[in-house]
Structures are given as C-alpha cells and as structure tokens.
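User: I'm writing a tutorial on reading structure tokens. Could you give me a worked example: one chain, its sequence, then its tokens, then a sentence or two explaining what the tokens reveal?
Assistant: Sure. Here is the example chain.
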Amino acid sequence: MDVAAASIVMSQSKLQQQVGVQMMSKAKEQMAVQSEGLQKLMESAEVPQHPNLGQQLDVKA
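And here are its predicted structure tokens:
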C-alpha cells in the first residue's frame, strides 16, 4: 500500500470516528431531554391517596 492510499484510509477512518462521536452526542442530548420530560411528568402526576393502601400485607409460604 502506498502512502497516498494509507493516508486516504486513515482519513476515512478518522471521519467515521468523528461521525460516530457526533451521533452519540446527539443521542445523549435527546435522552437528557426525554428524561427531563419524564421527570416532570412523574412529578406532576397525582397519586390518589387510598385510606387502606399499605395497611395490610398478605404473605404465603
């Protein structure tokens, strides 16, 4: 393999790595936005308070 071909292969490999890193960065940002939305949704959800909820425990062996 000559120097020019090796240079092209190295350049393509570097570009492929940079694209992969950028895609992972965008995915990370998207997951952060989704997790913030989910957290807000969970905080805003009203949980009905049932007077007998959690008062009894059924255990079978």
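What the tokens reveal: The mean pLDDT is 90. The radius of gyration is 27 Å.
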